[in-house]
Amino acid sequence: MAPLWLLAMLSLAGGFGLALGWRAWARHRGVVDAPDERRLHATPTPRGGGIGIAIVLLAAAPWLGQGSAWFAAGLVLCAGAGLVDDLRPLSPLAKGLLQAAGAACLAVAYPLWPDLWGAAVGHVLAGVVVLVMVNFWNFMDGSNGLAASQALFAALGLAALAPTLAPAAWLAVALAASCLGFLPLNFPRARLFLGDVGSHALGFAIAALLLMVAGTSGGSPWLLVLPVSAMVLDASLTLLSRARRRQVLWRAHREHLYQRAVAHGWSHAGICALYAAWTLAATGLALWLARQPAPWAMAGSGMALGFGIIAYSLLGRAWPRPAATGRTPHGSPTG
C-alpha cells in the first residue's frame, strides 16, 4: 500500500491536470455555463471540471478495503448522472433515480449504525445520508471555491475524528488533495466550474466519510455533523424556507445565504473565507468535544448547531432574498 504522502501528491496532480485538460476540451466543445438571472458569474465559463476529482476518487477506491467495489459503483452512478447533465440536460427524475442507485450502492457497504436499529434501517438511513450530501453539495456549488474548499476542510476534519487512520484517511487525503488541485482553476477567479459531476462526486465522498467514521466513532457520533455544518445549515434551512413558502424545491434559485451575500456586495473570496472560518471553528470544537464526556459532547454540538441557526437567521435579515427569487421557469435543479 502506497504511503499517504504519495497518494496526496498523485491526487493533487490528478485533480489539477485532469481539470486543466477538461477545461480545454469543454471550451472547444462549448460545454459552458452562460450567465443568467440565477447565476453569480458574468462570463461564459466551462463546466464539468470536477470530473478530475471524480476520477481521482475512483482511482483511490482500491485503498478503501472492504466496501471499495460498492464505493466505486456508487460513485460512477452519482458522478455519472452529473456528467450526463453537464453535457446535456437530464430530467430531475432521471438524475434522482441515478443518485438513488448510487446511494444504495454505498449504503450496502456502510450501513448507518446497524447495531442500534437493525441492518435494514441502517441501510436505508445510510442511503438518505448519501442523497442529502450529494444534493446539498450540488445546491451549494454556486460561488467560486466554496464547494471544493468546504469538501477539503470537511474531509480532513472527519478523518481527524476517526479513531483509526484507515480507510477513512485514504479517502480523506484523496478528496482533499484533488480539491486542492482543482481550486486554482476555480478560485478566486473561476476559469472552470465543478459542474454537477464534481458536486455530486464531492457530496458522495463526504457521505462515504461520514458513514465510515460513524461506524467507528464510539460514543460521540453527533460530532460528525460539525465539520459539514456550514453546508448543511445553509442548504437545509434554505430548503425549509422555500418549502414553507410552497415553492418548487427542485427549481433553480438564488436564495441560499451565500448567493444573497454576493447579491449584497460580498466577494466570492469573502464568502469562501466566511464559510471556511465557520468550518474550521466547528471542526476544532468537534475535536475538543471528542475528548469530553458524552453528555458534554452532545450538548456542545447541539449548542453549536443552534448558534448556526441563529446566525443564519440574522444574516438572512442583513441579506434579504431577491423579490423575484425562485420564480424563474427554467434551469437545472442545482442551487
TrEMBL record:
Highest rank taxon of the organism: Bacteria
Transmembrane segments: 119-137, 144-162, 168-185, 197-216, 222-240, 261-290, 296-315
Membrane topology: Multi-pass membrane protein
Location in or out of the cell: Cell membrane
Main subcellular location of this protein, as a coarse class: membrane
Pfam families: Glycos_transf_4
Entry keyword set: Cell membrane, Membrane, Transferase, Transmembrane, Transmembrane helix
Coiled coil: none
Name of the protein described by the UniProt record: LPS biosynthesis protein
